[in-house]
């Protein structure tokens, strides 16, 4: 479904260049949920943005839905892949109602039956019809993230990219959103890539997990390996230990 | 206003597109009306509009052009509330009709300046690269012209008149709007909600006009309102120099100019239109200040 080989992203500004992603390769199978974890600045979000075509990248292979993804993507190509951003406070247009936000993708792709599709999308993500004509500032963080998910799914894309979809939310809301994503993955038969710094979240949702450090891929492990702690790289072991948090014995 | 309608408009859970839009507009209007500065400004601007529209009725049938040489330079009285000028024309009705000229200039300049500034600024800010460089250098060139001097040159080249005054003012007034729109666009363009529409496959035109321009609009409107005073003063200045509206059209700047010779003996000839310029400029400034408070993102 998604294939990446030797993906490199370099940002240049004022003569300085930052190698954000250095030669990463992986494949995501149809229907799989693939996780990418790593600390801040490890380049995990950049990988996602490169696949989405939001940042310029170079690679030997970059296939989306089994086809090479061009640098300039057509409207039909865009439709294959949607994105849920980290911060639900920044990802919704402040002057548009939920209704406007959800109608926009349908209008861009000239899809009919707008009213019914918007109603269905609102119901699908667990929002109520009374939320339809509200502005983002009249919604809570969790509700906003639900709107962002509805917007990503309203075109029925085969691929969903999730960039830390819960890290800006309250702990109790995080669980709700994660369960919603797990449910939608089934009903929309999605292939998805989930980026997170939270090992518990990835272990819960993903089949396979890539560990990244400083722009490079450390290893790819299965969720079972992660839960059992059977990993080969030292960095992964450190990451797992860090995620367990402070223990009195080691202090 | 009935409470039921008020509640319907202020509802946090609107049930239709229309209710959501009307409710949002109602909240905006309410915040302008409840802001004292904006309200005073709005009243003055409304007064200007009303006197321009209803000038023939408000002047009680006195034409601004009828001369009465026997009654020239008459002091303010019951017959002529603001007195008469050097040709015996009623200054009260001339001031009312002068509002029409002022309003025409203000309207034409905003209709020209705001769209040009918005388009140039958002294009430069969103596309960046060489488009940005070229558009901003053009903006710099226009910014380098002194407004009044360019207006003088225009009037000299094309002949004096309101249209040419509007062209001259517009040519020098749009660059600040392009700058504002550009800086706002650069901040907005990187935000996630614009990235989201890019990923949906929206065209650049759609992104600019449906997503970026609406967000730049409020600061452009504030700036435009604050600029109105300057535009009115420039127009009056051109009129004073004889390069704006031509006689016998009643225009405040030209009226001040004609009262210049008699300012010590017949003060009202120059003072009354001068007061009109002052009050209207003040009104636009107050309204602009108030609008800035209302549109301030930190207060919403």
UniProtKB/TrEMBL annotation, chain A:
PROSITE patterns per UniProt: ABC_TRANSPORTER_1, ABC_TRANSPORTER_2
UniProt xrefs under SUPFAM superfamilies: P-loop containing nucleoside triphosphate hydrolases
Checking SMART domains in the record gives: AAA
What organism is the protein native to? Devosia nanyangense
Q: Which family does it belong to?
A: Belongs to the ABC transporter superfamily.
Its protein name is ABC transporter ATP-binding protein
Keywords linked to the UniProt accession: ATP-binding, Nucleotide-binding, Transport
Q: Name the Gene Ontology biological process terms.
A: transmembrane transport
UniProtKB/TrEMBL annotation, chain B:
An example of a Pfam family matching this protein is: OppC_N
List the record's Gene Ontology CC terms alphabetically.
Answer: plasma membrane
UniProt key word tRNA-binding = no
Q: Please give the start and end residues of each transmembrane region.
A: 38-58, 101-128, 148-174, 228-247, 267-288
Q: Does the keyword Membrane apply?
A: yes
Tell me the InterPro entries matching this sequence.
Answer: ABC_transport_permease, BP-dependent_transpt_permease, MetI-like, MetI-like_sf, OppC_N
Membrane topology, record value: Multi-pass membrane protein
Can you provide one Gene Ontology molecular function annotated for this UniProt record? Answer: dipeptide transmembrane transporter activity
Annotated GO biological processes are: protein transport
Q: Where in the cell is it found?
A: Cell membrane
Domain (ABC transmembrane type-1): give its ranges: 99-288
UniProtKB keywords: Cell membrane, Membrane, Peptide transport, Protein transport, Transmembrane, Transmembrane helix, Transport
Q: What is its main location?
A: membrane
Protein family according to the UniProt entry? Belongs to the binding-protein-dependent transport system permease family. OppBC subfamily.
Which PANTHER family is this protein grouped with?
A: D,D-DIPEPTIDE TRANSPORT SYSTEM PERMEASE PROTEIN DDPC-RELATED (PTHR43386:SF1), OLIGOPEPTIDE TRANSPORT SYSTEM PERMEASE PROTEIN APPC (PTHR43386)
**What's the name of the protein?**
ABC transporter permease
